[in-house]
Design a protein that fits this description.
Blueprint: H1 3-11, H2 14-17, H3 20-30, H4 39-46, H5 55-76, H6 83-86, H7 88-104, H8 113-138, H9 144-154, H10 156-169, H11 174-199, H12 207-210, H13 216-223, H14 229-236, H15 242-254, H16 257-278, H17 285-293, H18 296-305, H19 311-317
Helix pairs in contact: 1-5, 4-10, 5-7, 5-8, 5-10, 8-9, 8-10, 9-11, 10-11, 11-16, 13-16, 14-15, 16-19
Amino acid sequence: MTIESIKAHVLAVPEVAAWPQMADFFERAEKKPRPDWHLPVLACQAVGGDVTLATPGAAAAACMYISIILVDDMLDEDPRGEHLRSGHGPTANLALAFQAAAFRIFEHTTISTGLRAAITASLARLALGTALGQHWDTQSLAGEENCWKVLRAKSAPFFGAAIHIGALLGGAEAEVANGLRDFGGLIGEIIQIRDDLLDAFQTPASPDWVQGHDTLPILYARTADHPDRTRFMDLLQQIDDPQALREAQGILINCGAVSYCAYHLAKRHQYARGLLDSIPLADPAPMWDLLARQTLPLVKLLQTSGSEIPPELLLNMQK
């Protein structure tokens, strides 16, 4: 499967073909394709299906991913967002269009009525679940319980649905497809925790610092009992200062926030390994490789920061 085949499915939707701005945005997006777009293909391969049948799923995943990023960039006031190029109104409309296009793709695909209904339900679950997560994220909900609630809702719906749809297109039975959806949800949680941790060490300060989001590492440093807690709270008020940011990032390491995140990542890797072992797959290698790819950036960060690397993470890299 190629980017060109994904593009062909997206542009085959009449409204996309008739909307120059939409087609142009996809042309720009495809120059930096995300590996997430290929999740349905990996799942299809894992269940022993014909991977060419998963191309519509990859096209739908691409459209959903673009829709989510367009909205997320607006909510985060990301300086790289399309809203700064095209305006908030047109960008919001573009996000809605790409979300709808994900559904329309399957109107032009020769599949059974039952399969189309199952895929449509999975896409709807993805769209609504992500919207709820983004809504919670804008509420600046306080506390660890709310932090976990937001974290689970932000990425898990996309990864779960993309893998679920690929399994369905590969001919998997419902039990296998649902198991892979749960595995995809864990991948989403792993990616969200990992990205929140990596974003915390960006320079200049990421939107999480600037907007006061309680991501897992920041919440830990802000609320855990450690000697630098008061100083950390002071630094949060001046985080635009590069020196203050560097000091705050150092506290994340020294207070145990990085190790705390690594612990939760290791536990999810462990759960994901156990789940994969329990699902009868024709070719489990693509799912194992997917899990392993989430580990390397974190291990590099832990090595750089001098933090302990949980053995579960190293074990996963050796699978």
